C-alpha cells in the first residue's frame, strides 16, 4: 500500500469518515486496502509519532488546534468507546494521562483539554477510538469548551432514568 493511500488531511478524514459511516470493522475493505485512516497510519508507520507502543500510540494531527496537540489511539481497531475492551481503554487513558503530564513538563502547558467523540450524532470524524489531548496555556487565546447547549428535549427526568438503569446493571 502506497503512502498516498493514507490520507490524513482534515478534509480527506471527513470524506473517509462519511464513507465509513455505519461500518463497525473498517480495517480491510474487500479490495484488501486499508479503509480506516488510523489503522492505515499504523500499518504504514506514516504518522508523526509521539509515542508508539504495542497497544496504544500517540501522534500529531496535520491540523493541530494548538502547539503539541496530539491524538491518542489504541493500535488495534476499535470504532468507539462502546466497543473498546475495558483493558484497552485503560491503557489508552493511561497514555492520555502520561502525555498530559509530559505536555506540562516538556511544553510548559498549564493544563490540557481531552476531547473525544463516539457514535452517531456525536460528531465523531474518524471511526477509530481516539482522544485529542490539547495543551492549554493561560494566554493561548482560545476555548475548546462548548458555548451552546443541546436542543434535545426529553420527557421525564433523564437523570432518574440513568440512575435507575445503572442500578439495574444496564449499560445502555
Ligand atoms: Zn482503525
Topology (elements, then pairings):
Layout: H1 10-20, H2 37-44, E1 48-52, E2 56-60, E3 70-74, H3 86-107, E4 111-115, E5 131-136, H4 158-167
Antiparallel strand pairs: 1-2, 2-3, 3-5, 4-5
This protein binds zinc ion.
Zinc ion binds at residues 27, 36, 38-39, 77, 128.
Summarize the model shown:
The protein has helices at residues 10-20, 37-44, 86-107, 158-167; strands at residues 48-52, 56-60, 70-74, 111-115, 131-136. With 172 residues, it is α+β, with helices and mostly antiparallel strands.
Shape: globular
Give the radius of gyration.
18 Å
Q: What is the total tally of β strands?
A: 5
The structural class is: alpha+beta
Arrangement of strands in the largest sheet: 1-2-3-5-4
Order of helices and strands: HHEEEHEEH
Q: Please tally the helical runs, counting DSSP H or I stretches of 4 or more residues.
A: 4
Distance between the termini: 39 Å
Oligomer: single chain
For the record, what CATH class of the domain at 48-167 applies? Answer: Alpha Beta
CATH topology of the domain at 48-167: HIT family, subunit A
What is the mean pLDDT? 84
Largest beta sheet, briefly?
5 strands, antiparallel
Ligand kinds: zinc ion
Indicate the percent of residues in helices: 25-40%
Amino acid at each position: 500500500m502506497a503512502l498516498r493511500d493514507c490520507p490524513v488531511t482534515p478534509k480527506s478524514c471527513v470524506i473517509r469518515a462519511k464513507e465509513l459511516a455505519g461500518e463497525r470493522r473498517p480495517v480491510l475493505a474487500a479490495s484488501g486496502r486499508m479503509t480506516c485512516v488510523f489503522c492505515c497510519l499504523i500499518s504504514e508507520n506514516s504518522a508523526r509519532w509521539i509515542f508508539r507502543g504495542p497497544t496504544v500510540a500517540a501522534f500529531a494531527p496535520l491540523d493541530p488546534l494548538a502547539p503539541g496537540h496530539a491524538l491518542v489511539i489504541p493500535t488495534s481497531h476499535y470504532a468507539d468507546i462502546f466497543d473498546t475492551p475495558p483493558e484497552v481503554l485503560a491503557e489508552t487513558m493511561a497514555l492520555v494521562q502520561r502525555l498530559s503530564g509530559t505536555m506540562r513538563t516538556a511544553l510548559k502547558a498549564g493544563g490540557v483539554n481531552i476531547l473525544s467523540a463516539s457514535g452517531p450524532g456525536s460528531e465523531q470524524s474518524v471511526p477509530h477510538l481516539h482522544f485529542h489531548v490539547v495543551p492549554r496555556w493561560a494566554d493561548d487565546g482560545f476555548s475548546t469548551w462548548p458555548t451552546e447547549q443541546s436542543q434535545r428535549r426529553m420527557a421525564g427526568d433523564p437523570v432518574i432514568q440513568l440512575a435507575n438503569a445503572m442500578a439495574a446493571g444496564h449499560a445502555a
